[in-house]
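With this grant's support, we have settled on a layout for protein records. One resulting record is reproduced below.
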Amino acid sequence: MKKHIYSYIFIMLFIVSCTNKNNMPNETQIVSDKAESEQDVQVEPFNDKLIDHKPMSGWKAYGLIGKVKTVKENNGYQLEFNTDGNVIKIVKKYSDSESIFIRKYDSPSMYTEILREGSTAYEIILKDNIRKEKIVDDYPDEEKYFSYTFDKQGRVIEFNDRLTYWNHNSNSYIYEKDSDVLPQKEIFDEGWEDGSCTIISTFEYLKVDNMGNWTERKVNKKVTEYESMGEKKTQKTDSQIETRIITYFSVQ
């Protein structure tokens, strides 16, 4: 009789053990669910309160839609904004180094940019359709600045860098339609004392978030370089996939 009782107990314990094992989530599923949860945090659903209504804001200067908090690109480039829409941190990564620019604001139109041990004061000037960020110094006749130009739709169409006298560069952004919020093409021009470079990039947008900002795109580039005032020319093409993660300020 005891033998039959022990056999019955053993069989029941075996059944319970198998049942519990089948009901437990496996390790792969747990990791997958965690990843999906983290991804949802990065992409806010469309919200009217996230719309940026400020003309020529820092967000618009970088071609961003809405009240963006951070941007992290797969090439290491990063942006961080304050609630006024102005940049407070820029990270640029190179093959063997990186530069971190910190901006501290005394007001929405005045900031000091800190890079390593040095600092530079800037004034933001909004006039007509141009946002100019000018270095504040003791030489008003030698203006150093960078600027953004906007079209009637409020889209950035040109960036000019005039911070140095020996090296000027500009970016032009071309939109296919008046209703487009993302540019179809970008033309980068850079000139220095003994040469110049032009990069024409065309974009194919593969993914956008709920606010309309791209998170993945294909970039086709054509690079043309001139040396000795146009005497020598070299050309090359390149194609790559760019991705980025965008977060937004929390709103009620």
In short: The two ends are 70 Å apart (CA to CA).
